């Protein structure tokens, strides 16, 4: 250094530069790996939820995008590398019925309660006040381990080829799954937004997004909704991690924009095949909200709030679509989430008649937070609902046994008469026994002798429902109508179900109708014409209608029909009546659906063949189908 | 060795004292502090849903964005102005001759100046970051420890800009050219990624010039520091749950900042030791 000062310093400077450059290359490699990691997580989530690894922007040529091709390569790459994970009950493709690919299953660990230790009483009150407290306790160690394995895969030389391909495709704007997972540069290739290069300069685009959001807020105060929508899109394009912009934007669309509008009459609506719903001016805004939140999920696949708002605020509250609401809330609880997300999910499962799942969820919840006041109440409700359902099924089973007995008597088949006489007697005895049990159960919750404000009104309404059903079975329709009317006025939660039952009883008993009843029935008939062949959830099982046949596509969170062997059963056949006796749940399915039905009873799959084709509706014309 | 180090420290402390008296820097600092303080109130007129949690999170997001932007802009301006002015000012007012006439070697003098500049940058960052820390704590009532990592990375980003601006300043006799040079370094450092893009797209016309431009761009891409790597400082602050496990990246970034900082300082020494004074 002393001897060659004029050479040593520049050599040292060049060496430092060279080392810096080498370090820069390493960072570049890490950055590329990070993008690859984000893409794996995001595209896998999108595949699981939406059936595609990335959706091309509206107005763009889908042929240009290579997301599907690259995702297929990812599946091929990860299949032998990633550790085996069991196929969970929700891990199957809803369209093909096949199990999801390993990488898709791997990116989302199942929700398991890691720490079953109850939260100490003294901590509960304080904990309830904190938003986000549930997050730390529920995000699983399993998920962390899996994320680490995915990160190691992203760093590994095995993924090098695909990483390069992804990066090249991204650079050429051929990746639709852009967003936080790939850096923001790709976003600026999207059409329809007025973003200058200056906005993205030096990482200040978040600030630009905030300024746009202030502008959105200003328009909101001025009531200029039409100006807000494009700006909200610009805002999240500038800052795809702006979760509140997604949440508030969707809220504006689904709630505030629709608040002054009346429901569009069914005749003026058009069918939206993407969302599988009939939409008018008002309903379209609900789906703007849905699409906005789905866009947020594509770009931020691990933020529970987007899932919660999509599931609860829009699908449940605005569209009354319990199935999709449960789907997104179930996804939300896989992630960091607040405790009320789980409570909402269990409530919705109860509403969708997935009573056992709901009860199990509430019990888990209570084990974790023993001082919670709501959980014991809902556990009781679910027990009551299960008992009521068993009672209804017992009644159906008894009716089926009666029918079989009558048929045997008609044929004069002595052996069958003896068999069905016994079976009918047993079924009626079971029905009567369950009625008594159900009554006693609801009475114990209702507590008739308690103060008025302490009574559990929903339990009271359920009690009256049992009474009404007994009256109905005896042909006392007027009494049944009065009883059920009392029940629905007793409990707000029972109102919708009570109204439907009341109408059924009045129609069955041919009782005189009030003007409001007539209008209710007429409205229901028109609605039925439009909605008859939309997907339906019956007792937690989802049925889809295609080409004159209903097929059970999912059972709770699990798979539906996946090509298993079908046993044919004809309408009104003895085989069907016997099936109704052993598996009375099929009666309800046959009553509520029309045409042929692929359904599951017990462990077997059946193909119910109706004598009449499916009824005509706005989505299906039997004449054309024939 | 002890006295040499003592001399360096004396010059560093003197530089720091001198720098903190500069009105421009105090102006930047006061402005930045006002903006950070004002970020507390910007959300007061915003509409949100009835969810109080959502309101609070939007507030926090806006505060973070405003403060991060403020620290980046004003911190960078302070870094460039200080780094660009310490040596040329002393040359201009001839103080440097008095110092170098004492038993102080150029190496010691320059190291002292460089360290003094770093003290100024660090003190400014600590003041701005401290207020940001306090503003976030007031809002969330949870110590925002991640902010400390973010501030640390911000410093290493400033270190690179500071070192190269310092090198430019050693060639000049006034602060104007190094200031412009510093801004240019900052802008170039943020656009390095585009050089890679130029290289990737080169050669498409099959012309020799096109290919050579590509090679030149690639060479520059490899040599010039890429300041966009430090965007991690923003990501750390928001900590989205789909982020990769990135403990490794953090330490690598610090090494990156140190290496380029060292390269910048050695370049400045190389220039300064040949400077005629």
Report on this structure.
The complex is a heterodimer of chains A (626) and B (277). Chain A has 626 residues and is an alpha+beta fold. Chain A folds into 4 domains: 19-184, no CATH class; 196-374, Tetratricopeptide repeat domain (Serine Threonine Protein Phosphatase 5, Tetratricopeptide repeat, Alpha Horseshoe); 388-530, no CATH class; 536-625, no CATH class. Chain A is built from 25 helices and 9 strands. Chain A has helices at residues 5-50, 67-81, 102-107, 121-128, 133-138, 141-155, 160-171, 197-200, 205-222, 225-238, 243-256, 281-299, 304-316, 322-332, 339-351, 355-368, 374-411, 414-446, 457-473, 477-490, 495-508, 515-531, 574-582, 585-592, 622-625; strands at residues 270-272, 277-279, 536-538, 541-546, 549-555, 558-559, 566-570, 596-601, 604-609. In chain A, the strands form 2 sheets. In chain A, strands 3, 4, 5, 6, 7, 8 and 9 form a 7-stranded mixed beta sheet that branches. Chain A has a two-stranded antiparallel ribbon with strand order 1-2. In chain A, a hairpin with a 4-residue loop joins strand 1 (270-272) and strand 2 (277-279). In chain A, helix 1 packs across helix 6 (141-155), helix 11 packs antiparallel against helix 12 (281-299) and helix 19 runs antiparallel to helix 20. Chain B is mainly α and 277 residues long. Chain B has one domain (2-274). The radius of gyration of chain B is 21 Å and the shape is globular. Chain B starts with a helix and ends with a helix. In chain B, 45% of the residues are buried. The interface between A and B is large, with 60 and 53 residues.
